[in-house]
Amino acid sequence: MVHADNAPDSSLRALRHRHLLGLSTYGSDEIRLILRTAREFRSVLDRPIRRVPTLRGVTVANLFFEPSTRTRLSFELAAKRLSADVVNFSTAGSSVSKGETLKDTVRNIEAMKVDMAVVRHASPGVPHFLTRCVDVQVVNAGDGAHEHPSQALLDLLTMTEHYDSFDGLNVTIIGDIAHSRVARSNIYGLHTLGANVTLCGPPTLVPVDIRALGVRVTHSLGDALEGCDVAMSLRIQLERQDASLVPSTREYHDRFGIKLRDLERHPDLIVMHPGPVNRGVELASDVVDHERAIILRQVTNGVAVRMAILYLLATATRAHDMSAGPTVS
Ligand code: CP
Description:
Blueprint: H1 28-45, E1 59-64, H2 70-81, E2 85-90, H3 102-111, E3 116-121, H4 126-133, E4 137-143, H5 149-160, E5 170-174, H6 181-193, E6 196-200, E7 216-218, H7 221-225, E8 230-233, H8 249-256, H9 260-265, E9 270-272, H10 285-288, H11 295-317
Parallel strand pairs: 1-2, 1-3, 3-4, 5-6, 5-8, 6-7, 8-9
Residues 68-71, 142, 151, 274-276 line the site of phosphoric acid mono(formamide)ester.
């Protein structure tokens, strides 16, 4: 196997993109650069003083128009670990409730001289729209059911801690594919790096046209887990469903929930979940706490990946000398 770091396209030193809007347009060299950089920042997080001066003078605005725990906190922590200044915006308590438009909101925030905006919004395409309204760098922190690129990147980083190569790696994504930005970004990233992706869920939650992305589709969990290296369960997103698309959460768990017996039957299988987990629905509660469920490791890696994203985007446009790699001292 070829380790991700020794892959032939590992020589890239700077991102070609000014924004991170999604993984569909990122090449394998750019994705590997982010993963490589994240591994260096990962070592910073293990130090007694978890802060480096790398982005001193840069201001990051976290604009969250939708609830978030992991993404919002880890982007904030990532910016602070890099010594950037951070401001946090959430819809509750803002002038959006007085009728201010999205465009006016971000133009006012830009007027306060921010450099980067990390944006989460319920509507697909909002981060792309903002790149046309303001002159700040935009990071998509999840836009509707479209993409969640930083989540997929932290998922990819976590997989590299267990597998030497993406070539031929079999990843199964289980659950609410129809409403999942996490699934879409992972499909793009995994395919770009050479992995095989299987999607599994009830027909009501797996769009028929998703096969166009080159994935295998099955509606049987048993079938999906055969030969599978990584099982990624997704949250049932009740808030995005117009009608009840699963008969009951209990029946869903019976058919598509990963149980302890699945881990016993597949002794090399690792289980991932982007969170938040509905215990007893996507995963049995004892699976959530099992050592082969690496959900909290994903969360830790999320900070390192987001440090890498902020650093690489900031330095890509500031024409820093990238030859030495990130300053982690
Ligand atoms: N995985 C994820 O996006 O979690 P949050 O909604 O808590 O940010």
